Amino acid sequence: MSPRWEPNPEVRRGRSVVHSLHANLVFTTRYRREVFTDETLRRCEDIMIEVCDSFGATLVEFNGEHDHVHLLVHYPPKVALSTLVNSLKGVSARLLRKEFPVHIRRHLWGGHFWSSSYFAASCGGAPLSIIKEYIENQKRPG
């Protein structure tokens, strides 16, 4: 008897696609100001979860320090990563400024919360060296 097949929760299925896309994101506060406390980090995580849900994505992991946050996001291929990032940063900045106005204003002024740049890296699956070797070893037609 063959072993029972167990579905991998990291692999999702759509109508015409099977995918497992993960991104490691890092956002820093404007001028690397030390804005985050435990309370504001918890609220930031809640906001990020809600934004991811609205895109059909999942916030797999979240953590941060006083001046930046790290996210691991599992997202569908129909979502442009830059669009997701813009929404994550925009919604969180607006809500955190609204909910913690005195604290945020003490550290940041003007209209900006996050730095305009961010770090994004794809992650998951086999190491790049293995994928490169696999592709190199494929037979060419002919």
From TrEMBL:
Q: What is this protein called?
A: IS605 family transposase
SMART domains from the xrefs?
A: Y1_Tnp (SM01321)
List, for all copies, the residue spans of the domain called Transposase IS200-like.
18-138
The highest taxon in the source lineage is Bacteria
User: What Pfam families does this protein's entry cite?
Assistant: Y1_Tnp (PF01797)
Q: Name one GO molecular function term.
A: transposase activity
Q: What's one GO BP annotation on this UniProt entry?
A: DNA transposition
Record SUPFAM superfamilies: Transposase IS200-like
